[in-house]
Amino acid sequence: MIELGKEKEMMQQNSSTYSTIQTGNSFNLPNLPKKLPITFLNVGIVIPTLNEEKNIGVILDGLKSLGFDNILVIDGRSEDCTVEKATKNGAKVILQETKGKGAAIKQVLNNNYLNADAIILMDADGSMSPEEVPALIKTLESGADIVKGSRFLKGGYTQDMSALRRLGNKLMVTAVNALWSTNFTDLCYGFIILNKRAIENLAPIVESQNFEIETEIVIKAINRGLIVKEVPSVELRRRSGESNLHTFKDGYRIFRTIFREFMKPTKGI
């Protein structure tokens, strides 16, 4: 159980516009609370990794400084010292059974590694600030099954998206909104919290092996009647190293996932 601070004013930050500064080995979001709101959920945090030795320690330190210690690193058999650094920084570490970010998330959804009431998925590259976690938790507790960060709600933005990727994301969001009558502002962003109901519904049916997993989770959640909400999020630049995302190959996979799900005769499967 994670006990977090209770002040009401601290819980009003997710809807406000804020600036973001990334300095040295820390995250600095000036207008976000340094204490977290109270939650009665046992929240676990899941971080898929692949060769992130220069980033993982900073992320884990940031999470621990906010009171989070139920953290799982699921590693895709890194060739650097990611596993050693994650272990040294107090995370529980397991290895992926098969390759790909989607495969890692599927493995986590189908195994109760953290014995948590809700799990937060976040990237290992330093682009997602631990200080935004309170907004995800608060919104989940307000009556959602899944809450995802959005870089395009008021108060959110991205420092790490090319014009081509921005266009692709816009087309994907437009397609999903048109086909499922939704009003999402972002789609391909992996800062997500899921409660037990969402995990139990989605674990048996997610299929994606790679970066299209976030899109599949959202679509299948809608098909299953789960409540999905968005909160503003700031995507920082990757701290170090090269991204494992391939614009054209992964973009194609995401579009294929959207239309595959739409063409299924029985929605929600």
What's the order of the H and E elements?
A: EEEHEHEHEHEEHEHHEEH
> Strand content of the residues, in percent?
15-25%
* CATH homologous group name: Spore Coat Polysaccharide Biosynthesis Protein SpsA, Chain A
Count of individual helical segments: 8
Low-confidence stretches: 1-36
- Biggest beta sheet attributes: 7 strands, mixed
Radius of gyration: 17 Å
Report the end-to-end length measured between terminal Cα atoms: 33 Å
Mean pLDDT: 85
Shape: globular
- Given helix and strand content, the structural type is alpha/beta
> What percent of the residues sit in helical stretches (DSSP H or I)?
25-40%
CATH level 1 name: Alpha Beta
The count of β-strands is 11
- Whole-number count of domains: 1
* Strand order in space, largest sheet: 5-4-3-6-9-7-10
Q: Provide the CATH topology.
A: Spore Coat Polysaccharide Biosynthesis Protein SpsA, Chain A
Detailed description of the structure:
The protein is an alpha/beta fold and 269 residues long. The protein has one domain (8-263): Spore Coat Polysaccharide Biosynthesis Protein SpsA, Chain A (Alpha-Beta Complex). 33% of the residues lie in helices and 16% in strands. The chain contains 8 helices and 11 strands. The chain has helices at 56-65, 82-88, 101-109, 133-141, 163-180, 196-202, 213-223, 247-263; strands at residues 21-23, 26-28, 43-49, 71-75, 92-95, 118-121, 146-150, 157-158, 192-195, 228-232, 234-235. A 7-stranded mixed β-sheet has the order 5-4-3-6-9-7-10, with helices on both faces. A two-stranded antiparallel ribbon has the order 1-2. A two-stranded parallel sheet has the order 8-11. A hairpin with a 2-residue loop joins strand 1 (21-23) and strand 2. The longest helix has 18 residues, at 163-180. The relative contact order is 0.17. Mean pLDDT is 85; it is low at 1-36.
